[in-house]
Amino acid sequence: MTSKYSESIILGLVMVVVLILMLMLTGQQFFRVGNFQSMAFQLPELGILSLAMMVTMLTGGINLSIIATANLCGIVTATILTTYINPDTAGAGSWGIILLAIGAGLLTATIIGFLNGFLIAKVDVSPILATLGTMILLNGLAIVLTKGYVISGLPKPVRFVGNGLILGIPMPVIIFALCAAVMALILNRTPLGVNIYMIGSNPTATYFSGVNNTSILLKTYLISGLYSGIAAIIMISRFNSAKADYGESYLLMTVLASVLGGTNPYGGFGKVSGLVIALIILQLVSSGLNLLGVSNFLTIAIWGMIIILVFAVTYLSERYRERRQVA
Asked: Mind listing the pLDDT tens digit for each residue in 180-193?
């Protein structure tokens, strides 16, 4: 059995154990329909942001600016919507403005992704430093644009994206499923996906095999930026507002979900299926801790402990494999 299937089986078993543990700790309260529906609305925006993080980690990089990108995208979109549309009188004629606003937001996110890719691929800045600098820049711009206030009052069709149901299925889950499917298709069925994995495994060998590393990295960070923008549309529609500091706690969780789902922090390996299972596990734990009345700050501390543990286990397992290969 290949390692990718064994890892998925392990994650599946962990998910079952978490479900049983939550049942023991919270009783039937955890398995109410309302609780699962609440999780279904919360998971997609984190899931899409995790996909944006994962694709950069596959190249051996990282994108610390995904939350700042999402917030600026949301602010641009919300500003256009609230300026030109009255949420109480939005009708068929407002669809053009809605599409324009969403397009402007996604374009903003894509440009930010291109900027990150340019700094990393062309200027040869370390991914962590390039995206950290971009994050600080975007946070400053977001505060200047909003003056620290909330932009609220979005039209009803936009609010449906984050709060609507289609045949009983939350709209955000449908969008997340489509985004995950497209990402899996890119990584597993296209030359771009193959090259992303190759760069993460050995960028020097990839370059000498005839691959344009610069182009691949630019495309990777473009995808990451675009996915951050999609997450932003869900986020502002769910909250009916945009703000400079929404989702700050998500950055840690996107890294945690990626690594927990089997993405190698040094690049070269990771599957969308593993990420999805890891996200479900994290959402189950988060919901269970919330029902138990655990402080959100303590929950964040627990995520930090988990990510340190995951990195430690990853490091030890790699050292063990190296020793076995030598032996």
From this structure: 999 999 999 999 99
